[in-house]
Amino acid sequence: MIRINQLKLSINHTEKELREAVYKKLRVTPDIIQSITIRKQSIDARKKTEIKYIYAIDVVAKEESKIVKRVKDANVASVTESEYSFTIQGHDSLKERPIVVGSGPAGLFCTYFLAKNGYQPILIERGQAVEERIKTVDQFWLDSCLDTESNVQFGEGGAGTFSDGKLNTMVKDTTGRIRQVLKVLVEHGAPEEILYKNKPHIGTDVLSTVVKNIREDIKACGGTIYFDTKLTDVLIENGVVTEIEVTKRNRSKFIDGVINSDSSIEKIPCSALILALGHSARDTFEMLYRRGLTMEKKAFAVGVRMEHKQELISKNQYGDEYVNLSAADYKVTHQCKNGRGVYSFCMCPGGYVVNASSEEGRLVVNGMSYHDRAGENANSAIIVTVGPEDFNKIPGAVDTPLAGMEFQRYYEGLAYQTGRGKVPVQRFGDLLRNRESVKIGHIKPNIRGNYTLANLRDCLPDYMVETIIEGIQAFDKNIPGFADEDAILSGVEMRTSSPLRIMRDETLESNRKGIYPCGEGAGYAGGIVSAAVDGMKVYEALAVKYHP
Q1: pTM of this prediction exceeds 0.90
Q2: Secondary structure letter of residue 458 according to DSSP
Q3: What's the rounded Cα separation, in Å, for the pair 8 and 51?
């Protein structure tokens, strides 16, 4: 195969023009070419008056080596595609079917590969199937009546179901796992463009369909999925897992703001338990800590969501050509005078801020976009890194591996009080002057869930507020208008990553044998793709030891 790099074309080019550019680059006629595949597409916006698409193109042709030799171009080379390949090596027999806890990307992909290869896994999920989950979340955004088991954090697809569905990752991968994840998503309904776009995303609307299709494929391959089923205990004997306890909920409707349902407790024999927990499974973390799993606290980042007009961001990035391109994103970072870093995270072009709460009396926000990214506002988390040295600054702090989790809970509790159960919102100009907002300016909040005007200093520590302010003012130098006093801030953003790590060895097992911590909640991933990849790694770890 021949790969052409740095092939530049107008943003308004046609497919015919792309093919003709390939023929010209390789100095061949169309009959020599067998296939042309876009490997990567990105935007070169360094010259706002001459924005280009930059392509990497894979070409299958007759006599490829002769073509490459004749062209003599550093951007034209012969390549061999590195496809994902894994061979099952296990010889031991599993006493019971493997059990996966959590249906976010890590759990879903681990279960998918186990099912596809004959292991007949069981997947348990505390929340609802995605169709019902969407209804529950929509209702919560209308009336603020929280279902603590099925919400933006919990349910089929994990927290990523209500997100921008970003698929880019900083992970370097030579095994082909990342591309395999993208291929699986495409096979189940994601747009093919995610295979080549520089910053691919799916969007919450498309992602929910993809998740459902993967679920049906798992079932067709012998897997079993239980929703409304929560892991509540694990039985350990001689350092090895032997059984789990689950609570199954037979739900009925909300009555007077309360979920009326019956629940039953069941015990299931288990010798291989994959813990693909989300970063918000706090009650499960507490149970696992009591059961002796080795954990450590780790740094994460917290802050606020910030909204601007999407037009401001797109015009700054693309100039007048922004009208011909999809909504632009941004990435900004700044090192503050106090030694702390502040940066943007999980930027959602044309998106929405969402109430992402999962515990009563606590409130947290996140960002979400649909596939078309057609919302009026852009939003991003503006966050500050916090570490174990900060966790002891809250009242009643206790030095355990769960300290970061309690740090999150404390400030989410303050956010709930500040907003009186609604998302607290403030103009940036009012945050500067330490006063509660009393009106909205020319930027209107794009929020899913009820919100109220407030002073975010009431739910964030002073060092964080000052760091955020300095960062926003610094970002204004790169994106003029970023520090607009009418820009909308919402609080608090606390679930950027897991506040702890469940330790595992080279076989990916915890100190309690048979238990495999996996994905973002366990501290081994940071986003949809990296979590899915970690799910694949855990599948491989089981397949090295056990046969189907």
Answers
A1: yes
A2: G
A3: 10
